[in-house]
């Protein structure tokens, strides 16, 4: 049995993923690869990416912010 095998006698699972950061998006991607599409991603912010994002000033990109850095929104 590989890591994507689903027992055909079981109903498709319903999954809630909390957070659209790298871990949450990776979990959703892996579920899709395994044929599980009945999931919902919940995110508190208006954008995905969690703590990884870019800071902009007008049309100019200032910096890519990584989790270990601080960017005040």
From TrEMBL:
A molecular function (GO) held by this record is: polyamine oxidase activity
Please indicate which superkingdom the organism of origin belongs to.
Answer: Eukaryota
Protein name (record): Uncharacterized protein
